Amino acid sequence: MGGKAQDNMAEDLNWAVGGEAGDGIDSTGKIFAQALSRAGRHVFTSKDFASRIRGGYTSYKIRTSVEQVQSVVDRLDILVALTQRTIDENLDELHEGSAIIYDGERSWEAEIPDEMTAVDVPLKSLAEEAGGAIMRNIVALGAACEITGFDVEYLDEALEKRFGGKGSKIVDNNKAAARAGQEYVQENYDLDHLGYNIDTTDNDYVLLNGNEAIGMGALAAGCRFYAGYPITPATSIMEYLTGRIEDYGGHVVQAEDELSAINMSLGAARAGARAMTATSGAGIDLMTETFGLVATSETPLVITDVQRSGPSTGMPTKQEQGDLNMAVYGGHGEVPRFVVAPTSITECFWKTIEAFNLAEKYQTPVFLVSDLAMSVTEQTFPPEAFDMDAVEIDRGKLVDEDEVDEWLDAQGHFRAHAVTEDGVSPRAIPGTTDAAHMSTGLEHDELGRRTEEEDERVHQVDKRYRKVETAREQEDWDYREFGDPDADNLIISWGSNEGALAEALDYLEEDGIDVHVISVPYIYPRPDLTEEIEAADEAIVVECNATGQFADLIEHDVLTRVKRINKYTGVRFKADELADEITDKLSEEVPA
After folding, report:
1. How far does CA 463 lie from the centroid of its chain?
2. Residue 451 lies inside a defined structural domain of this protein
3. Which of 2, 440, 484, 503 is found 20 to 30 A from 154 (Cα to Cα)?
């Protein structure tokens, strides 16, 4: 890639801390991200962590700028290295102007390339003087503040938020540790040649990750019951809701397993509550048995799958988008459903609200499909990106006592599964006068009574699938687009790849490559892209799986082959990497 994109990005700062699991890497990164956000800077984070409590390489990267950033890139300016492996793992991203903060007093001897600036800080000793060796990472943050010209007072605010509940002494000790690191670098190094100077603004930003946005969206949508079983990386949705949903009269239940979680949520939804469950990996497999019951009983339920590397146990803490076929086709028999896949953290909020509305309007399961990269990435947004006044709640054909009569049969029985033109039956919450009814996973008639009568079977199956067709016509199954809409090159994406694609455009433009990008948040039903693909000279589908599951769906729709860029290393796409991949792919022949 040439110089234009790099010049634009030179105003950004890329910082990282790395070590072993158990070294406090995650909390260190979050504190610095919060400090930068409080200083009015945009933040985009990326995490790499091992599937264990202690040991194994883990890192936390932050890209920050006064302009919004949507992706990580292959460049590191400041690296806090707690182990030699941290340097080795990030060597390809370091450059001549990079500074590496390390503790020369520790047992390992750092091997730092000559072209890098080595900043040897006695992290552990300074932390012990401030009150405890556990604060060595905070000492490193203070050192980073001095190197980058970042006001340490913003770090004070983040430390107060992080440790305020543990008492003023803990907060004061951490502040002292940060200043010890800052002062040590100030007194022992002259690093003006690096030229780093983090500008601050008066802007006010919200910093949150995808799972927090889903939890916030669920509360805004009126979710009042959540059941789940702890599993990486979905657990933080439950953690976010716990302690918050109770303020709205709701409940969180930690179930004994995933099958119990989805069935508890199903029961709450049958009782009239807006309900949700969330899981990852093998958890979605365990929930599959209940998918058909949710659909056949016509119960509105939101099922969130935060994808991770599989199959089997796979790599629980790594990125992948391999569950698409499960979301679209999972379950025995034929299960009508909707599949919604947010493409950004803000969409995690808004699409969660939409998922609850779709579930109740059409009385069907809605799969909300996210992925690990989006779930753990923390990003800044202006508060208006989550405008609660713009939230709309649609509960569909929820009947009250005044509307029951029109849905009774000749004997006065409520037709909870009435065959209707749009496929959507009336829904009455248990306890509604004159609307007592039954519902079962067995095939049933309009009253919910078990039946094997052929005509009734056909009527009910057709009715349930007619809901999907009604929604296909009535809802806006659209996509997001950016780049040049008249470009001959079309890139199609779904899920968390949108941000990297948006920033890859700068690199591609620099090389004279114009592209039209379509980012699709709806998997089933999904927009028909036939015209867009036929109008393009080249069409490429980008996704994080090995087989191209979304590309398969697109080819099924348009009856033509598309090119594919697939990444399944367990690591998300980076903007500059993706630009290179697209450039290479455009020169290849379309597969036969």
Report:
1. 34
2. yes
3. 503
For residue 120, give both structure tokens.
């040897």
**β-strands 223-228, 480-483: how paired?**
unpaired
Report whether 77 contacts 14 (CB < 8 A): yes
Question: CA 235, CA 10: separation in Å to the nearest integer?
Answer: 36
What is the C-alpha to C-alpha distance for residues 100 and 89, in angstroms, rounded to an integer?
13
Would you call 276 helix, strand, or coil by DSSP? strand
Q: 416-427 pLDDT, tens per residue?
A: 999 999 999 999
Name the packing angle between helices 136-148 and 152-163 (round to 10°): 150
DSSP letter at 497 equals G
The structural domain count of the chain equals 4
**Of 204, 232, 259, which residue sits at a domain end?**
204
Say yes or no: 231 and 351 in one domain.
yes
Question: Residue 548: phi, psi to the nearest 5?
Answer: 75, 55
**Residues ≥6 apart with Cβ < 8 Å to 339:** 327, 328, 366, 367, 369, 522, 523, 524
pLDDT digits (tens, 9 = 90+) for 94-131: 999 999 999 998 867 788 888 999 999 999 999 999 99
197 and 124 in one domain? yes
* Residue 313 CA: distances (Å) to CA of 232, 280, 334, 572: 11, 10, 27, 19
